[in-house]
Write a structure and sequence with these properties.
Chain lengths: ~240, ~325
């Protein structure tokens, strides 16, 4: 446990000792604000609610920003050879994976929590359902966590950060789109029904949206948790393969 | 402390390390020699548990590296090839991270860091970002990392690579000083380093151990070990050659140099050559300018072992 925290602390301190953290947070907040107020017509709606105007953009923001946060986690270690240093210290692969993952997730949580002025704004303007807002944040955090686990996995596949970024974006885009009718329809024509169903069930949007409605359904949480667990497990397999 | 038995590593069909067996006990400094690609780094990576061996067993301080990797690693300090370090931290931050991963916190951590900073001469750059360090400092920072938990076993892959002559000297002195209470393996291309710091040396070529002994034992395997170099002035080559060849102690005679009536010979002895030589010298009134019994040079041994084809040519 202490080792996980030591590794997480190092990763977190690297975000904040380089421009990465500040660039990321500023761009995330600017884009979130732009989409909420200018594209999402927050004021024009006249409803004290964050889901339709604020959270709805998060999958698209995370699509690019989360892979950018996660792309260096393993690629950098592979490129500079520090992975040899890390794995000849008394550290198990799981401790390293969890340490890196938690650090980045905490970083994303910090960025997300910095959108708090929006909560103040809606509370000032009306009487929002705070439980629903909490659910919205929970869903957003879980989505970020799922995308992050994918970025961590693709990062362990290559020493090139650009390749790692692009792979993660493509996979995340697939997960956003694969429940969407135009995509499922294109498959229905030639694939058996179970393929279509299992593809559609991989989509993150239905689970994300159901959390946005203010319902904490254990199935939605389980979906995100199992996706994260799967990616982290795949990550440990890839790491073992690197050394064999 | 370190026991390596029948260690083999295959990369696909290529055999990088082939049935290597050796052991290092406490108080020994083992020099690992060999041409590039001989399997030195691969062997070290397996001992530290980074690469799993294809077959064979390794125990470090009584712990099997395959079964109890964490226990073994706790007792190993490792300097990987090219000394990789996290470039986005300060030297202090990096050492602090390494100390914490090794289970050192608070006062123990501070003490450990102070000790290695002094040992590796890092005071000047302690708060500098690793990015901006010169190669020598980067190398020493990585070496400090290997020493921070005061391990019983040190595995150092080319510890003096990229250092200037003064720093090389310091590292060798450090190795020799620590050697008395630890088991140390280090690899190098620099043969004088072996003589300066090792108690024993292994030469490895194409994955196999081709020589294992003290530096003196290895030097004795030189084709020139024990030969006598003799330079005599005011003499003709033919005369000197015939006088030397007449001696019962001289097996073979080679003319190395002739210059302004100074002749240099290399004499391969048979039995006790020197008394014969002195006696002949007095009898023939040689003007001996230089006389030297060669100890053999590790370079020659290394070349003759790892390049068997050139043995006759040299």
């Amino acid at each position: 446990m202490k080792t996980i925290w030591t590794i997480a602390k190092r990763e977190l301190s690297i975000y904040f000792s380089s421009p990465v953290a500040y660039v990321f947070i500023v761009i995330f907040l600017l884009l979130a604000g732009f989409f909420t107020f200018d594209v999402g017509s927050f004021f024009e709606r006249g409803v004290a609610d964050l889901s339709p105007s604020f959270f709805i953009w998060h999958p698209w923001l995370y699509l690019f920003l989360v892979p950018a946060v996660g792309m260096r986690l393993w690629s950098e270690e592979l490129r500079s050879g520090t992975i040899e240093l890390l794995f000849t210290m008394p550290v198990t692969p799981w401790q390293a994976i969890l340490g890196k993952y938690l650090a980045s997730w905490i970083f994303l949580l910090i960025a997300l929590l910095l959108t708090f002025p929006l909560i103040i704004t809606v509370s000032y303007l009306g009487h929002p359902d705070l439980g629903r807002i909490f659910c919205g944040y929970l869903g957003s955090l879980m989505l970020a966590g799922a995308f992050l686990s994918i970025a961590l996995l693709t990062s362990s596949l290559t020493r090139n950060q650009v390749v790692s970024f692009i792979l993660a974006v493509v996979i995340c885009l697939f997960l956003i789109l694969c429940g969407w009718p135009p995509v499922t329809n294109s498959v229905t024509n030639w694939a058996p029904a179970w393929v279509v169903d299992s593809l559609a069930s991989l989509g993150v949007m239905t689970h994300f949206e159901s959390l946005q409605r203010g319902v904490v359904d254990s199935r939605d949480l389980l979906f995100f948790v199992s996706m994260i667990a799967f990616c982290l497990f795949a990550n440990s397999v890839v790491l073992r393969a690197h050394r064999a | 402390m370190i026991n390596v038995e029948h260690l083999t590593k295959m990369f696909g069909a290529k055999c990088a390390v082939d049935d290597v067996t050796f052991s290092v006990s406490k108080g020994e400094v083992l020099g690992f020699l060999g041409p590039n690609g001989a399997g030195k780094s691969t062997s070290m990576r397996m001992i530290t548990g980074y690469l799993p061996p294809t077959s064979g067993t390794i125990t470090v301080a009584g712990f099997n590296v395959a079964d109890q990797p964490l226990e073994a690693r706790r007792r190993i300090g490792y300097l990987p090839e090219n000394a990789p370090i996290y470039s986005d931290m300060t030297v202090l931050g990096f050492l602090s991270f390494c100390a914490e991963v090794r289970g050192l916190y608070g006062a123990a951590k501070k003490e450990a860091i102070d000790r290695v900073v002094q040992l590796c001469f890092l005071e000047r750059v302690l708060h500098q970002s690793v990015d901006t360090l010169s190669k020598g400092f980067r190398h020493r920072t990585c070496l400090a990392q290997a020493l921070v938990h005061d391990p019983d076993v040190l595995i150092l892959d080319e510890p003096t690579d990229g250092l200037d002559p003064n720093q090389k000297f310091e590292v060798r002195t450090l190795l020799r000083r620590m050697g008395s209470e630890k088991a140390i393996i280090f690899s190098t291309h620099i043969l004088e380093e072996v003589e300066a710091a090792c108690t024993r040396a292994i030469i490895i070529d194409q994955g196999k151990i081709v020589a294992n002994g003290t530096p003196d034992e290895l030097k004795a395997r030189s084709p020139f070990a024990g030969t006598v170099m003799l330079t005599v002035g005011n003499v003709t080559t033919e005369r000197l050659l015939s006088q030397v060849q007449a001696l019962p102690g001289a097996e073979k005679c080679l003319v190395i140099a002739e210059k302004d009536s100074h002749v240099t010979l290399r004499i391969v002895p048979r039995g006790n050559l020197l008394p014969d030589l002195f006696e002949a010298g007095t009898r023939n009134a040689w003007k001996i300018e230089h006389l030297d019994v060669e100890e053999g040079r590790l370079d020659d041994v290394f070349r003759s072992i790892t390049l068997p084809d050139t043995k006759t040519a040299a």
